[in-house]
Automatic annotation (TrEMBL):
Residues 1-45 form the HTH asnC-type domain. Transmembrane segments: none annotated. This is Lrp/AsnC family transcriptional regulator. The lineage of its organism: Bacteria, Bacillati, Actinomycetota, Actinomycetes, Micrococcales. SMART domains: HTH_ASNC. InterPro entries: AsnC-type_HTH_dom, Dimeric_a/b-barrel, Tscrpt_reg_AsnC-like, Tscrpt_reg_AsnC/Lrp_C, Tscrpt_reg_HTH_AsnC-type_CS, WH-like_DNA-bd_sf, WH_DNA-bd_sf. Keywords: DNA-binding, Transcription, Transcription regulation.
Length: 133
């Protein structure tokens, strides 16, 4: 949304709205801007949630696992969890056969993986929802 459209929506003139945006950016509240790309429109309409349990959870193992996960483009979201499982990964692929290859070649090759449990996404109800501001 442009600053002009935002100003109209929140009932400000453009100058103070733009100044407030700059302040939010400078303070780190707004971390950045990005394009909201529909994965299906670029041939990546298949999505899976993968729960990962590691064999061991020492600092070096987790660090290596997290570095490897961060470097894999098809993993579009990753969270470390309290309890079991250890991690939740959101993975996109072209289709089920592509996901199977990804699972076999990359997910199962991640360091210290004891168990992978995939759940296939039927429908994404709230993609890219931000915090309730």
């Amino acid at each position: 949304m442009t600053a002009t459209a935002l100003a109209a929506k929140v009932g400000l003139t453009v100058a103070p709205c733009h100044r407030r945006l700059r302040d939010l950016e400078a303070s780190g509240v707004i971390r950045g801007y990005r394009a909201d790309i529909d994965p299906g429109a670029i041939g990546l309409g298949f999505e899976a949630i993968v729960f990962v349990t590691l064999r061991q959870a020492d600092r070096a193992t987790m660090s290596e696992f997290e570095d490897r996960v961060a470097a894999i483009p098809n993993i579009v979201e990753a969270q470390r969890l309290f309890g079991s499982p250890d991690y939740l990964l959101r993975v996109i692929a072209a289709d089920l056969p592509a996901y199977q290859r990804f699972y076999d070649d990359q997910l199962s090759a991640l360091p210290a993986v004891e168990r992978l449990n995939s759940t296939l996404v039927m429908k994404n109800l709230k993609p890219n929802a931000g915090p309730p501001v």
